């Protein structure tokens, strides 16, 4: 629906020049969203896919295995949108205190994203509301180390920013003036917690655009805005684990994603955005379900290959169990977690190497690092790396 501009243009000073900055009207849109039959079907399809994802996550024998891998893969993808070069194995190497193959700043940013996600989950679990304080805390974690440390971590901006273009005057979009950020974010917080507001999925769709339009931080608005979607769905009880990440969908359809953000601002077409968003949710949730199934099938197949190894099988299986949780590991970590001696873990790894389940990646004789290749390959395929 074309509503025209839902908001107002204020004059703001940026980089010494006067620009027209956009202040969005508070949510929900007026007139209300047109939820016609085809759109309701899309909504239903997306909710159904989310239900399947929630069910599989709840039914998995060890849900944290899936969450661990999925959260890290999302961190990599979301940070890649921002421009970092690290891969999942770089992140896992970094977490192991081993040198990753990319600049440290890149992997630190990905690691910050994991920290922000885990922080948000822990906060919500302890009953903290989905509020602006939490949003600022997420930003603080995201920007804590590396390049972002100079970008006012955890604070709403006090200067004018802009999107696209070399200067404010030729920017694609100039978000609200700094003095409007607090009031706009207060309105968004009210909307997020309004019991009379829309259902979780529509709420997440609307809130994401509004957040990006306000652009309350100096940097990291994309990543925090994407986290917000997962947290809204989790907080509203649609997903027991924050397992839905649209980064890959937004990355694959970046031009369309940006076009839709612009269309909301320029013509008030929230419905076109909602359709795009719902498509993303349905596709992403289905992909996540497929990945969980593939992961389970991989584990079962590899386990079946280990079993015939006779006397070596029990220890190899113990070490294999650890690798399912930590697909990049050294012998010490494997020995500690499998509760076996260093020598036993080393022998077990040798057996897994002979089966081509693990491979050594450093080429060194000492402080070797082993990866569960099938697992990493599977997640790399999800991220479009392979
Ligand atoms: N024309 C636009 N109108 C509103 N928001 C936009 C527009 N173009 C891009 N955005 C949003 O701005 C985000 C980028 O903002 P910012 O650079 O602060 O975040 P980031 O997390 O560092 O980057 P990225 O999202 O690229 O990872 C995009 O992800 C998108 O959500």
Automatic annotation (TrEMBL):
EC primary class: transferase
Entry EC no(s): 2.7.7.-
UniProt KW keywords: ATP-binding, Nucleotide-binding, Nucleotidyltransferase, Transferase
Keyword Nucleotidyltransferase found: yes
Domain of life according to the entry: Bacteria
Record PROSITE patterns: FIDO
Domain Fido residue range list: 130-279
Record bears the keyword Transferase: yes
GO molecular function, one term: ATP binding
Binding site for ATP: 82, 215, 219-226, 257-258
Residues at the active site: 215
Matching SUPFAM superfamilies: Fic-like
PANTHER family membership: FIDO DOMAIN-CONTAINING PROTEIN, FIDO DOMAIN-CONTAINING PROTEIN DDB_G0283145
Protein name: Adenosine monophosphate-protein transferase SoFic
Organism, as annotated: Tepidimonas aquatica
Species lineage: Bacteria, Pseudomonadati, Pseudomonadota, Betaproteobacteria, Burkholderiales
């Amino acid at each position: 629906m074309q509503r025209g501009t839902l908001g107002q243009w204020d004059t703001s000073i940026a980089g010494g020049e006067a620009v027209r900055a956009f202040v969005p009207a508070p949510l929900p849109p007026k007139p209300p969203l047109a939820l016609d039959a085809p759109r309701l079907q899309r909504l239903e399809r997306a909710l159904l896919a989310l239900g399947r994802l929630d069910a599989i996550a709840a039914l998995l024998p060890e849900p944290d295995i899936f969450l661990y891998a999925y959260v890290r893969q999302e961190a990599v993808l979301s940070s890649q949108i921002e421009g970092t070069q690290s891969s999942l194995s770089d992140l896992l190497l970094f977490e192991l205190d081993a040198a990753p193959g990319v600049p440290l700043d890149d992997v630190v940013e990905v690691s910050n994203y994991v920290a922000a996600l885990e922080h948000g989950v822990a906060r919500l679990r302890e009953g903290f509301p989905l509020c602006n304080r939490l949003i600022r805390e997420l930003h603080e974690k995201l920007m804590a180390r590396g390049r972002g440390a100079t970008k006012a971590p955890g604070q709403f901006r006090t200067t004018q920013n802009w999107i696209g273009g070399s200067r404010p005057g030729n920017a694609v979009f100039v978000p609200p003036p700094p003095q409007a950020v607090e009031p706009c974010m207060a309105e968004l917080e009210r909307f997020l917690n309004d019991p009379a507001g829309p259902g979780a999925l529509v709420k997440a769709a609307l809130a994401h655009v509004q957040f990006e339009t306000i652009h309350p931080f100096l940097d990291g608005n994309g990543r925090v805005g994407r986290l917000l979607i997962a947290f809204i769905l989790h907080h509203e009880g649609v997903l027991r684990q924050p397992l839905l990440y649209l980064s890959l969908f937004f990355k694959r359809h970046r031009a369309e994603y940006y076009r839709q953000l612009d269309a909301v601002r320029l013509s008030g077409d929230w419905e076109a955005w909602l359709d795009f968003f719902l498509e993303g949710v349905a596709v992403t949730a289905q992909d996540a379900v497929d990945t969980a199934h593939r992961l389970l099938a991989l584990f079962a197949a590899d386990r079946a290959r280990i079993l015939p190894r006779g006397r070596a099988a029990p220890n190899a299986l113990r070490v294999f169990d650890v690798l399912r949780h930590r697909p990049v590991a050294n012998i010490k970590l494997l020995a500690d977690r499998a509760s076996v001696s260093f020598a036993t873990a080393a022998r077990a790894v040798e057996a897994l190497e002979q089966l081509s389940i693990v491979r050594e990646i450093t080429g060194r004789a000492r402080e070797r690092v082993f990866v569960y290749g099938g697992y990493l390959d599977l997640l790399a395929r999800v991220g479009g790396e392979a």
